[in-house]
Amino acid sequence: MSLCTLSPAVAAARAAGRPVVALESTIITHGMPWPQNLDIARRIEATVRENGAEPATIAVIDGTLHVGLEDGQIEALAQARGVAKLSRADLAVCMAEGRTGATTVAATMIAAAMAGIAVFATGGIGGVHRGAETSFDVSADLQELSQTPVTVVAAGAKAILDLPKTLEVLETLGVPVIAYGQDMLPAFWSRSAGLRAPLRMDEAAAIARAHAMRGRLGLPGGQLVANPIPEAAEIPRAEMTPVISRAMQDAIDHGIHGKDLTPYLLQRIFELTEGRSLDANVALVLNNAALGARIATELVALPA
Ligand code: PSU
Ligand code: MN
């Protein structure tokens, strides 16, 4: 029996060689509050379709690894409580125990690769947390990018992370970090992290060719495409800095760490910005879904 279950729409797209874009479920269950998360999950899928590709939202439901969810499954996940947050370490345990879990960037990449899906769009990836020199908190997303051949479109890494250290680790791991259409590394809510990105590409087709070239070279791992948030939706870095500091201090005061840290910070920043952080998050994730669909479309059009 196959280890992952494709939805009929995703199976049909794969069989016909049409472009498919993988989507994660942790942003639904742990990254955004109910009920906005449901509406946003649907809009992300619609954006992928409008840009010519089939969306495949990925999650483990009652032990089954689903690649492509029906609307009712997304609705149930969006309001479920106590859903596990799955990365490489806990994916197999969740499936073996017949439980339900949302996939992070790392686990979504694993499932996408199994299903033959080369492109994945999300909001932001995990990275090296601030204070990692003492906490050792480095997201498994970085290691996954070095070993699983999926191109991940994100809006850079969030400013709650230590961005210079995140770039250093990605370089060590051999992960290309490609800023889309600009020289500077985007920083999620803001268009620039104040750091130059290692690489820059301006065309979806070129990103698709680079993905294919890695495969031909036999290099394992994927690419990180850092797509800047649309200008109209950006929250300037200067405005986010004190909010992030406050949220981080609150996390320390409440003893939050490990898997709970990223969801806690996102929720706290949502409260502190009175919802503005979520509006920006929606704009950037839709922007990434559109670019992901264009890259996936270029990829299936490449000569074999
Ligand atoms: N970035 C966001 N929203 C999120 C996440 C990242 O803007 O919800 C999630 C992703 O699923 C990512 C995970 O893979 O957080 C990283 O968690 P950690 O830092 O615990 O590895
Ligand atoms: Mn972590």
> Could you state the order of secondary-structure elements as H and E?
EHEHHEEHEHEHEHHEHEEHEHHH
Q: Could you give a short account of the major beta sheet?
A: 11 strands, mixed
Helical proportion, percent range = 40-55%
Bound molecules: pseudouridine-5'-monophosphate, manganese (II) ion
Count the strands? 11
Shape summary: globular
Tell me the number of helical segments per DSSP (H or I, 4 or more residues long).
13
SS-derived structural category? alpha/beta
Beta strand %: 5-15%
Mean pLDDT: 96
The rounded distance between the terminal residues' Cα atoms is 29 Å
Low-confidence stretches: none
Radius of gyration: 18 Å
Organism: Roseivivax sediminis
Protein name: Pseudouridine-5'-phosphate glycosidase
Function: Catalyzes the reversible cleavage of pseudouridine 5'-phosphate (PsiMP) to ribose 5-phosphate and uracil. Functions biologically in the cleavage direction, as part of a pseudouridine degradation pathway.
EC number: 4.2.1.70
